[in-house]
Specification:
about 210 residues; mainly alpha; 10 helices; about 70% helix
Length: about 210
């Protein structure tokens, strides 16, 4: 039990590293949460800081999820009697929560997409690969990163069902639960995007506003 608490706490702290906030301070000496979409995530880093800084932010956020699922999940101080995949899910979910509600930046983090992708890479790489392909297709066709993100995460349970049927790997209950929790969390973080989509005011990815919040 103690090891699970330690794993969840460490994963949360790793997820809490405010990558885009740090990058904004380092590259332009700004608080990125006051510019663009006012979000401390990778997409806003691309818009405000440029593609080079945005790519670094996205890769680090992806790495946080991989680290939580692959490395932190292996810390087993006391026997827990539960599967390693369930421990990976606990660590990965904690990292995503840390990214969204980071204690290191007044609980104002990103939307969790890159970190969630990293967790899925660590647990089930094939499912992650297919979801990333869906994300890329949606970005290219719609130019809405929010739509691509929500579509990709919502498709994860369907992707798992497909892979379970046509591959030799059975999807565990822990992974099914993670796919639902992850999708729900990321849809929740995109609630403002959903509102803007209905209002017709959502920014497409080709627009790069460097506009401070008034």
């Amino acid at each position: 039990m103690y090891s699970l608490i330690i794993i969840a706490l460490l994963a949360y702290l790793i997820g809490s590293f405010p990558t885009s906030v740090v990058m904004g301070r380092m590259t332009r000496r700004i608080d990125i949460r006051e510019y663009g979409s006012n979000n401390a995530g990778g997409t806003n880093a691309f818009r405000v800081l440029g593609w080079q800084a945005g790519l670094i932010v996205a890769l680090i956020d992806l790495g946080k999820g991989i680290m939580a699922a692959v490395l932190i999940s292996k810390i087993r101080i006391d026997p827990t009697g539960i599967s390693h995949e369930l421990v990976q899910v606990i660590a990965g979910t904690s990292a995503i929560i840390g990214h969204i509600w980071t204690v290191l930046a007044k609980f104002q983090g990103g939307k969790g997409v890159a970190t969630a992708a990293g967790v899925l890479i660590g647990i089930f790489p094939w499912a992650a690969l297919i979801s990333i392909v869906i994300f890329i297709i949606m970005v290219v066709t719609t130019r809405y990163v929010s739509v691509a993100s929500m579509t990709a995460v919502s498709a994860v349970p369907i992707v798992l069902m497909f892979l379970e049927k046509f591959s030799h790997r059975q999807v565990s209950m822990a992974l099914w639960c993670f796919s639902i929790i992850m999708s729900s969390l990321i849809l929740f973080t995109h609630r403002s995007n959903i509102k803007r989509l209905f209002e017709g005011t959502e920014n497409r990815f080709n627009k790069n506003p460097f506009r401070k919040k008034m």
